[in-house]
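batch_manifest entry 22 of 60
target: Efflux transporter outer membrane subunit
source organism: Coraliomargarita algicola
requested by: lab member K.T.
priority: normal
notes from requester: please return tokens only, no post-processing; we will run our own comparison against the previous entry in this batch. if the run fails, retry once and flag.
--- input ---
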Amino acid sequence: MKPTFYFCLPFTLLFTSCVSIPEKRAQQVDEALAIAPIYATSEYPDLELVDSLLELFDDPQLKQLVEQAWAHNPDLLIAASEMDEAGFNFEKSRGALFPSLSGNGAASRAGSNSSAASNTFSASLDVEWEVDLWGELRNQTRAAQADQFASEANYQATRQSLAAQTMQAWFNLIAAEKQLNLAERERDSFADTHQLVQRRYEQGIVTITEVELAHTDAASARADYESSKDARDQSARALKALLGQYPDARLSASTNWPALDRSIPSGLPSELLLARPDIIAAYQNIRAADALARAAYADLFPSFTLTASGGRSSDTLSDLGRSAFDVWSLAGQISAPIFEAGQRRAEVGAADARAEQAYQNYRAVVINAFTEVENALNSEAYLAREETARLEALAAARRAEAKSLRDYESGLIDILDLLEAQRRVFSTEAQTISLHNLRLSNRVSLALALGKGF
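--- output ---
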């Protein structure tokens, strides 16, 4: 069953005046803090919305990885089982609204020394029904149904989060592969520089100090290369774990980034967040908590139970198959608390407090959702401008390195200037790799914050 009532949530006033919100929270909802809708102003880049995370990037391997995670990740499978359990709990709770029917059969044989033995057979149908006069059972059923809807939303939230984590882990692996390739080039470059300085030393052109400085950077580059290999393997293990597989490092990524060519239009309405399953789940938790609070209140009143029984008793087994009942009973029972040291009223207060907690948790979830969207939108703009500047810096650093090498061979600069030029190239390129990885991950975070995860 799919919940439909949450579509009336007005996010611009943080759920003000939605008629589906239970009465117990209605006054608090009406007094809730107003929150402005999301606006993508001119300071944000012009981006294009998609219907799901998998539509963000045209990468068949990435889509395959996400589907593998959906099929085998233990956390998602646990969430699916919890969703099934909530469905069965709802069916169980709903069954309490109807009469229960049970059948009984018995057979006995008795006798004494002075009389012959005789057989007695009996069969009966028993009906019991608790009259839900005050709505306790109905409210418990409503709570169970809301729990079912919340569990379905939690499953979708876990599914969305897993897709996002898998995509970001894939980007991390691509970045780690690129960083490893960069570290290999850096190692080879500083080794070449060390050999160049060594030859110049043998020719008597430079001092032993310059040789040791070049040796230092060459050794550091070898160490960085080993560190990059470790980071690359850890990224592969993290992705394999998300896929529900043994976390070894035997997984390679493409060295090409997925295209980042989609965009999101300016003027994002806050209603987009209605698709977020964590908000749906939090709202369903309010409904469940309020229904349980009303059920606890109804438990203060007397309960009524009707029982009926009909059947046959005979000394011949074949007589039990006749339709006419020659034994029957009908009874009604009323029970009411007289003295229990305030336990039920304490439960009413506790249930109301839990409903208040659910309401405040809902407000926190909504505020957090707006925060995530605003942060992702801002980061989208900042990271785009930062990457442009970093690429410009990288181009300049490469030009400076090429000139520094020519000047060093001509004797115009010393080894420190050449090594610094080389370090700046590799450092800036490493920053551009990390930065593009951040841009891809932030795009996923933005889509996830908007609820675009199905």
